[in-house]
Amino acid sequence: MNQQFLVLSGAPFTLASYVVEGGSSKHFSKIKRLAFSQPKVLHALLQKFTNSMARYIQYQADSGAQAVQIFDSWATELSPVDFEEFSLPYLKQIVETVKKSHPELPLILYASGSGGLLERLTLTGVDVVSLDWTVDMAEGRRRLGPNVAVQGNVDPGVLFGSKEFITSRINDTVRKAGRGKHILNLGHGIVVGTPEENVAHFFEVAKGIRY
């Protein structure tokens, strides 16, 4: 079987945000208006996305996917109490449903700017929490606890620096992550215009790291 890695476009709240807002948004006023004035309508929409996503992940696993990353990019626009109502329960549903049929499938959760929600992200039951660069790796590791693996979290902007600088930041991240349960990665996607040779250097340094 060829190794595959599946990246999903978004978790239920993020998908609902795109639908209700009609695209990306600065203030997310439409989705929040719906959430706070007609919560039953939003919950119904979120449930539909949850059911569809769970089936989609199961299909991808049956088709050979060996890991799944779920993006909840806009969940961090919610306050903690609203995250617990409009995002967390649906993420938990997806994880529980998939784990029943595919218990060995690693599930990764990424939520940009998630520093205020880290402890709640572990409640979803995912295997790995992906951190962006706004969270110190050592602090994130401490807050997530020993049972959750972490992914990240080098700032993509670092790849505009010198090769020595890139190496230093990679080693700093690895050191703070400690031994085991860490997937070295950027804290988000590669920025347009990033020098290709610096991307190659990132991978070379990563491959050469030994504990």
UniProtKB/TrEMBL annotation:
Its EC number is 4.1.1.37. Pfam families: URO-D. It comes from the Eukaryota. GO terms for cellular component: chloroplast. InterPro entries: UROD/MetE-like_sf, Uroporphyrinogen_deCOase. It is found in: Plastid, Chloroplast. GO terms for biological process: chlorophyll biosynthetic process. Keywords: Chlorophyll biosynthesis, Decarboxylase, Lyase, Porphyrin biosynthesis. Pathway: Porphyrin-containing compound metabolism; chlorophyll biosynthesis; Porphyrin-containing compound metabolism; protoporphyrin-IX biosynthesis; coproporphyrinogen-III from 5-aminolevulinate: step 4/4. GO terms for molecular function: uroporphyrinogen decarboxylase activity. Belongs to the uroporphyrinogen decarboxylase family. Catalyzes the decarboxylation of four acetate groups of uroporphyrinogen-III to yield coproporphyrinogen-III. Homodimer. This is uroporphyrinogen decarboxylase. It comes from Quillaja saponaria.
